[in-house]
Amino acid sequence: MEGYLLLGVVFVAVTSLVAAALFLFKDGGDSSTEERLEILTGKKKEKSESQGIMTENVLENKAGLGAMLGSMFKGSSANIAAFFEQADSPLRPDQFFLVSIGAIFVGVMFGWASRSPAPLLPAFGLIIGLLPLAWLSLRRRGRFKRFATQLPEAMALIARALRAGHSLNSGIHLVVEEMPMPISSEFMLAYEEQNLGIPIERALKNMLQRMPNMDLKFFVTAVAVQKQAGGDLSEVLDKIAYLIRERFKILGQVKALTAEGRLSGIVLQALPIVLFLVVYYLNPEYVSLLFKDELGKQMIGAAVFLQIIGAFFIKKIVNIKV
Length: 322
Hints:
15 helices; 0% strand; mainly alpha
């Protein structure tokens, strides 16, 4: 009877949460197009330099949950917006927050359905609740990786356009037309910004703020120096493209040499957790002593701490910067 009552309470809570989310999203404010155009033409200053020119105002809700999140993270709203834009997230921060809350409920219910001890229920909720954040971080990292892989070809393409007699703006437009996502979308933003009157150096710096990449920083610096002092920009871009390709070769060799260490680290980190779950489901009473006895709780805390320390040192060993 108590189980059915708990299921009913959870059902009502989740239904209320979904209804509230739909109500909040329906009341979202309109995007301020005029304000964005003023920023693009230089008539109005940006709220934050790190935010750059946003393709979509990810914090656009003026009422409801969006406003609440904006007030809670007032000092870091630009960083949150930049993070979501860098990941090319299909969700706004307020929607992402609700998805994470729902994932926490799912984790707790999964732990309860599997008859886990009560102290483990928050752990299940935390693990499942962090999955959306892990997905967003992996999406952002993958976008950065694809951009870095496409960058040398874009540099070579612009260099060939310059040698053929085209301007730098035409070379950037050629990247937009010929290259795939995500590099085409980022260069398209820079191309549109300079068409609206922003200097090309400022437009490229905005792209660097959206896509923090050391090789892209070389390109932006080369363009800024060429605009001020002149020089053969096509030759510089060819050398940058060659440097990037050579660095990728060395990085591939390093990954091949450290593959065994990375795999060993994954096994060492996963083995205690998997072994604990297996023993728990084979003999729950044996493992329950860790949660009932005070010494057992201290052992669990020490094990989690040592796992984190081990993961940190393994990552430092196998992570070689090139």
